[in-house]
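Study this:
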Amino acid sequence: MLIALLAHDKPGALSVRQGTRADHLAYIEATGVVQQAGPILDDGGDMVGSLIILDVADMDAARDWAANDPYAKADLFAEVKLLPWKRVIG
């Protein structure tokens, strides 16, 4: 099941994101369920959120993955949405 994780950082949290980024990327690599991922950028090019496509068994697995992401554990996000997603192109 493909799930889109859409997360918006708390205002002024760029230093939290930068300080946790290596752990976040290692988590992505270790878990093996991320199909695509990248930061959401503001008009100035700074990272202000994340868009991650997970390939997991079900929504519970997506919730578990999201809760254990080092970004979530660092309290980076103001909001996280998990949405069932269907790949049509790519």
The longest strand covers residues 47-55.
